[in-house]
Amino acid sequence: MRLREENPLATILILDDYAPHCDLLARWLTYWRYSVAVAATGPAGLAYALAQQPDVILLDLRLPEMDGLEVTRRLKAHPATAHIGVIALTAFAPSGTREQCLAAGCDDFETKPVDFDRLRAKIQVLVVGRPASSPPATRPAASGPEPAPLRRHSLL
After folding, report:
1. Is 149 among the domain residues?
2. Residues 6 or more apart from 125 whose CB is under 8 A from it?
3. pTM score
């Protein structure tokens, strides 16, 4: 699935097999004017990354067929995808998980449930090398636009 915002800031691949989490992330990312693609397995994410060259990948560590650490190792080992920023996401983070992710090649790490302000800043650093200067993730009351509702979709 791919959602395209007019004049996107960057393209983000959400690589996660849990559809409700993908849906929530996609809503926030499109609200922030990113173009979004979603894949549900490691091999599908690798294929997308090679073909489409997203700017950042939000990568769940527990994926079917190939775990997130192996996906990261393969991305960073391939010359065509080594430059893509990878932020590992996980709900299960025992001691040492962050270090394992960084050792595998992830550029950053975030636990679930996601702190959207912090995630946005991490994405911005990977996209342009500086923190986001626009308003925080909390939406303005009635004055600001709401994220558009997403249509139900199937994952890659």
Report:
1. no
2. 108, 131
3. 0.79
- The values of phi and psi at residue 36, to 5°, are -125, 135
Contact 9, 36 (CB under 8 A): no
Paired tokens of 21: 């989490």
Query: Residue 136 is which amino acid?
Result: P
CATH label of the domain that carries residue 36? 3.40.50.2300
pLDDT digits (tens, 9 = 90+) for 38-79: 999 999 999 999 999 999 999 999 999 999 999 999 999 999
Residue 106 near residue 75 (C-beta atoms within 8 A)? no
Give the chain's domain count.
1
| Per-residue model confidence as pLDDT tens digits over 119-130 | 999 999 999 875
| Residue 47, in any domain of the structure | yes
User: CB neighbours of 48 closer than 8 A, spacing ≥ 6?
Assistant: 13, 37, 39, 54, 156
Does the residue 133 lie in any domain?
Answer: no
8 in a domain, yes or no?
Answer: yes
